[in-house]
């Protein structure tokens, strides 16, 4: 089947991973610590801040009709209560560039990175963050809302709990940390470097205290308490309330990192508990949202003893998790059982060096989306992660997710075959 004419086929990025020189953010500060867990600093990244017009044109010329990107809180409010009009004007130009090229801008207000000052005030475990986030959302939407139809408030609101679970497992494996660290990287859908984190733990406390005023800064991608987990969802609700008050026509949602939780015989209880923690317990906070951003990359299997590694002989991606594009269809169907709003696949992709494998991944993932549409599931769009080979957080630039390669020295863009393949689906709509 062809996708509906109003279906979004797009690609996604996050500000810190592509823009470069995000100097007021918590991640920038952490990248520059003497004993950082980051493989390398983000630096100029993909210089998307200056090259966004070229990148959006490449996206549009390939046939894509949507671009999911984030505005950067640390740029817009670099100091508490001091907003930078020049930066909000920059994002106004990015949105205008999308419109000029026939591309729907889908904006995320918070994609992992926060201003340093927010972390100094307690970060994502502090009650005050809810009011700060609401004020930031109001500022952005007052100025840009008339040009937007879709806003994701917070990216992967559940990431902190996923990391907390891994941290707990690490404590149990402390004596074998070096042996197990690399395999743990592949259990979470974000670029983490657990081995280096373990090595640097003894130095990190003092260095963090100098920058953030605390040895354990609560950045968004920290191991989260249950109270912090609830706080993130309350921040989402506060932002949604002010967005709707200012522009009720804007569709507002959140995005979640979702694994395809599969139970082998005896693992049913573990798989159900994992899905409850990853998705179901958020329903009271999101059930009235206009849409949910579904973000999926792979599956996780559970047996009688709990979570299992990737099956023996399975193809693994650069991120150390299983190449399994069929996970997306399964996750969409499972989400739809309990969330009745629209669904947008806000992230789905694969880090591989061979672009032919990326092409195969896209074909198989989109076949799953087509299957869901055929059954009447309200999927409104698909955004591949990522438009560009970019800065994959603690993993640095070594992970190649992009539809477009970026020369690290010259910043020259080279579209891959996968970009044209993805665009061909939009041209059929």
Would you mind describing this structure in some detail?
- The radius of gyration is 20 Å and the shape is globular.
- The model has no long low-confidence stretch (mean pLDDT 93).
- It has a single domain, classed as TIM Barrel, CATH 3.20.20.80.
- It is 44% helix and 15% strand.
- With 429 residues, the protein is of the alpha/beta class.
Give me some keywords for this one:
single chain; 429 residues; alpha/beta; TIM Barrel; eight-stranded parallel beta barrel; three-stranded mixed sheet; 44% helix; globular
Major pleated sheet? 8 strands, parallel, barrel
> What is the CATH homology-level superfamily?
Glycosidases
Based on the coordinates given, report the CATH architecture: Alpha-Beta Barrel
Poorly predicted parts: none
Question: Mean pLDDT, as a whole number?
Answer: 93
Helix vs. strand class: alpha/beta
CATH-assigned fold name: TIM Barrel
Cα radius of gyration in angstroms: 20 Å
Which strand order does the major sheet show?
1-2-3-4-5-7-10-11
Count of DSSP-assigned helices = 16
Indicate the overall shape: globular
Helix fraction?
40-55%
- Our count of domains comes out at 1
Number of strands: 13
Q: For this structure, what is the CATH class?
A: Alpha Beta
Distance N to C terminus: 9 Å
Beta fraction: 5-15%
SSE pattern, N- to C-terminal: EHHHEHHEHHEHHHHEEHHEEEHEHEEEH
């Amino acid at each position: 089947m062809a996708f509906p004419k109003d279906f979004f086929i797009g690609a996604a990025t996050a500000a810190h991973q592509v823009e470069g020189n995000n100097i007021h953010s918590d991640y920038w500060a952490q990248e520059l610590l003497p004993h950082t867990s980051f493989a390398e600093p983000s630096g100029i990244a993909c210089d998307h801040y200056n090259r966004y017009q070229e990148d959006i044109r490449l996206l549009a010329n390939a046939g894509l009709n949507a671009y999911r990107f984030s505005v950067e809180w640390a740029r817009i409010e670099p100091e508490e209560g001091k907003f930078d009009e020049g930066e909000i004007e920059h994002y106004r130009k990015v949105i205008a560039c999308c419109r000029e090229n026939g591309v729907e801008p889908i904006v995320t207000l918070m994609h992992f990175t926060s201003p340093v000052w927010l972390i100094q005030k307690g970060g994502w475990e502090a009650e005050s963050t809810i009011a700060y986030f609401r004020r930031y959302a109001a500022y952005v939407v007052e100025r840009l809302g008339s040009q937007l139809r879709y806003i994701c408030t917070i990216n992967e609101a559940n990431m902190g709990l996923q990391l907390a679970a891994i941290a707990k497992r690490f404590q149990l494996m402390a004596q074998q940390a070096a042996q197990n660290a690399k395999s743990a990287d592949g259990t979470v859908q974000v670029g983490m470097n657990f081995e280096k984190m373990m090595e640097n733990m003894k130095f990190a406390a003092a260095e963090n205290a100098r920058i953030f005023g605390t040895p354990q800064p609560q950045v968004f991608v920290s191991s989260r308490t249950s109270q912090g987990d609830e706080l993130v969802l309350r921040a989402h609700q506060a932002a949604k309330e002010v967005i709707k008050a200012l522009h009720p026509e804007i569709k507002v949602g959140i995005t979640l990192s979702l694994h395809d939780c599969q139970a082998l015989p005896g693992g049913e209880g573990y798989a159900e508990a994992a899905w409850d923690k990853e998705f179901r317990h958020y329903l009271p906070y999101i059930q009235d949202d206009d849409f949910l951003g579904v973000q999926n990359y792979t599956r996780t299997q559970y047996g009688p003893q709990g979570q299992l590694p990737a099956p023996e002989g399975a193809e693994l991606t650069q991120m150390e998790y299983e190449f399994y594009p069929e996970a997306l269809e399964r996750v969409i169907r499972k989400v739809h059982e309990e969330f009745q709003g629209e669904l947008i696949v806000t992230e789905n992709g694969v880090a591989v060096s061979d672009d032919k494998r990326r092409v195969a991944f896209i074909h198989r993932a989109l076949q799953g989306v087509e299957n869901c549409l055929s059954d009447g599931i309200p999927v409104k769009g698909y955004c591949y992660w990522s438009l560009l080979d970019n800065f994959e957080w603690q993993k640095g630039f070594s992970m190649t997710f992009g539809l477009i390669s970026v020369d690290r020295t010259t910043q020259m863009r080279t579209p891959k075959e996968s970009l044209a393949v993805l665009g061909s689906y939009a041209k059929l709509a």
